[in-house]
């Protein structure tokens, strides 16, 4: 009986081993080392209409987004900028050109107390903003405590793509272990280090060569060129996993309306989950309360996104943006915006987007035809063809 049990045990062991080896590598297999990433975009849309109207009407929108994150075991630093401007003119002869802009930049620094034991941290944050018809720029300082960690898993996403391409071309055979994936991802994450050490003109040959060594193969010309193509010429969306919450106190030093310093409270949370190697879900929420005797107010915003990589050069991006503001001296204001966009990457830096959107603003004011009331009672529907230039 014992030989039979031994044979069965061996068979089960081989089966489990084969299942383990065949198990798909995911973003969660990445253990973050020191890394950095940048996302920077310029977006533009333009619309022009003429004929059967008093004058030529037009609308143009341009926006810029910049996000840079430096990550290590004991520190995360994030620099963020969002800005947009618009200009439009109606079709009636008395319609004038309207111009609007708004921009907000922030620097957030998370410092972990003891990263080997838990994910508790303290943070500091500085913000500055500008908008149309402001009296003063918006400036705010915040300090507080938080818990959790968000891991930038983009190096693992790039590793998976490199391995897939090499295997499909027969340049890499056999299974690749998790530890090998991790080693390659760590080298990919160190791209800025290679660039700094070898120079921007020569770093890629050393970088790709070390990736081949980590894979245990000599890439050769075909493998090196394809690896470089995936890492540099393809656009792989930023991938993250994890969550964190934060709470802080601070002060609004100057505000758009020209008011003096006011104390402020801040609550924030974010959650990121790569549902699959092609599908990424993210949600970020923040609530800020400004305390001022007789003029209290708060603003809450939530940004949710779901991005699916249809092909190497086509992404399907879906977003829901919610903003709610309330103050003692004005009506509550809530804006909901839903957008679904197909983004086609003509190259690594240029993409075309086709976007359909719905937006609704609720300000508790009914439109009566006078200039004093905005016409936003109904749902706005838009379809836009846009051009995006990727700076980083």
TrEMBL record:
Highest taxon listed in the record's lineage: Bacteria
**Keyword terms, alphabetized:** Signal
InterPro entries this protein is in?
DUF481
Q: Which residues form the signal peptide?
A: 1-22
This chain belongs to the protein called DUF481 domain-containing protein
Q: Give the species.
A: Photobacterium kishitanii
